[in-house]
Amino acid sequence: MSCPASLPEHVLSLLKTSKYLHLATCSKPECIPSVSLMNYTYIPPHKVYNSHDETAEEYQKEEHYIILGTQKDTAKYANIQQNPEVSVLIHDWVTAKKLSLRKNSQSNTPTPEPTGIQNADHPSRLLNLLQELNQSELSQMSATLRGYAESIDPTSQESKYYEAELLKTNPDVSVYIEGKNFALVKVRLENAKVSDSENHTRFYG
């Protein structure tokens, strides 16, 4: 089952705007895990490469992809060749940073000396912080997505298309995609698990 169109907008926003993700792969048959911090680009269904051999019906499939570049002499690439099942973690670092900065700002604010009996209903600094923050912004801060990875034929038009998309999103990745040892990998997203700051979890797919 491909990643559903009902995937939360927050996750789609993360996929569109984040620069990095964590890619988890696992070898077979040894089952040795590996995690890598990667540049990537997200490919929504309407931007998936369409060869002239595909019918209009095939092209309309709601498939979401992530495109990655890697060297062939890496553990993750070897793992993908043996075992195409991968996991991807994306995180809302911007929201997390805002939360951390605001909490530190609140905690570093000097506590005024008491001038008398305080109102028992007076909210604490932390409560003030939580009331001021946009709760919807905090409701979904990270997502784990499972998918199937495969390397793309470097001589194909598909490879040229996705390489251009990757460079458009991350121009500085060009230093990693030079030479014959480079490979493009596409990950077809299958499902997602979204966790929020209160440890609530939802599954999609």
From TrEMBL:
Q: What are the residue boundaries of the Pyridoxamine 5'-phosphate oxidase N-terminal domain, all occurrences included?
A: 7-98
Supply the Pfam families for this chain.
Answer: PNPOx_N
> One GO term of the cellular component aspect?
cytoplasm
Q: Spell out the InterPro entries in the cross-references.
A: PMP_oxidase-like, Pyridox_Oxase_N, Split_barrel_FMN-bd
Q: What is this protein called?
A: LAMI_0E04874g1_1
Record the organism: Lachancea mirantina
